[in-house]
Design goal:
Strand order of the largest sheet: 4-5-7-16-11-14
CATH architecture: Sandwich
Number of strands: 20
Distance between the termini: 35 Å
Radius of gyration: 17 Å
Number of helices: 5
Length: about 260
């Protein structure tokens, strides 16, 4: 049976009950989700040989209303939807492997990304660099309806913070999106591993392939500098005013924000 989302994304969208996929309502377009297999993310896990749900998550890149499709293409914007499995990957929660956004040819920037949690609990983890010194490391615990912005050039991953339930989210991305895994894989993951305690809570463990750093644990914050309204869905931002999310495809519009930006 399809599962309703806890937060209304501004689209007639539901999670399929039996698989990591979505059901699209009237007037929508969207692909069959791509299944991300466990083997694909093993190189970035604390225990690459662990067992866990497989597939780990389903991702549908490029969804929306049919009437919006031409403008989305013109603006180089893409809206994606993701649903994570419940469970654990060895001693870690279900998560993505982590990456940096590749430079988009049309803008010359590594694009930012806006996440919006639709159901469950998520942690958006981000670090400034995927180098020996990772810079600032931030973990944002988000609930349904919360939004988190990862700025250009930061390495990041998304984590299902509750082992007993699926988690889903949407995200605005650049249409020329690409993932650079080079630095993350060279360091056998990101700078901090989310490890599950006996009570299935998350305790952070430093990755010794990076120089020592601190991790900042945060709650989502408003983003007035980007003009985002925390009470409205991300897709409705675009429907009401396409310019409101154009800093994703054209990061130069918010160039004065990025140098000191913290998720």
């Amino acid at each position: 049976m399809p599962i309703r989302l806890e937060f209304d994304p501004g689209l007639p969208l539901r999670i399929s009950g039996s698989v990591l996929a979505f059901e699209y309502g009237p007037g929508m377009f969207g692909p069959t989700p791509e299944m991300r297999r466990l083997d694909a993310i093993r190189p970035s896990l604390r225990d690459p040989q662990c067992n866990g749900p497989d597939p780990v998550y389903g991702i549908a890149m490029d969804i929306g209303f049919e009437t919006d499709r031409p403008l989305l293409r013109e603006r180089m914007l893409l809206f994606g939807a993701v649903v994570y499995a419940a469970g654990r990957l060895g001693s870690e929660p279900v998560r993505s492997q982590g990456h940096i956004h590749a430079i988009a040819p049309h803008s010359g920037w590594s694009p930012p990304e806006i996440f919006e949690i639709w159901s469950g609990q998520a942690i958006v983890y981000a670090q400034q660099r995927a180098e020996d010194d990772p810079g600032r490391c931030v973990a944002v615990l988000a609930q349904a309806g919360d939004k988190v912005v990862v700025p250009p050039g930061w390495a990041h991953c998304v984590i299902n913070a509750n082992v007993t339930t699926q988690m889903s989210f949407g995200a605005w991305c650049d249409r020329q999106y690409g993932f650079d895994y080079t630095g993350v894989r060279a360091h056998h993951g990101l700078a901090w591993f989310p490890m599950l305690t006996a009570a299935d809570e998350i305790a952070w463990e430093h990755n010794p392939y990076y120089s020592k750093s601190e991790i900042e644990l945060r709650r989502p914050r408003p983003y007035p500098e980007l003009g985002l309204d925390s009470n409205r869905s991300l897709y409705s931002h675009f429907v009401d005013n396409p310019d409101s999310v154009m800093f994703v495809a054209d990061p130069e519009r918010a160039a004065n924000c990025w140098a000191a930006f913290i998720p």
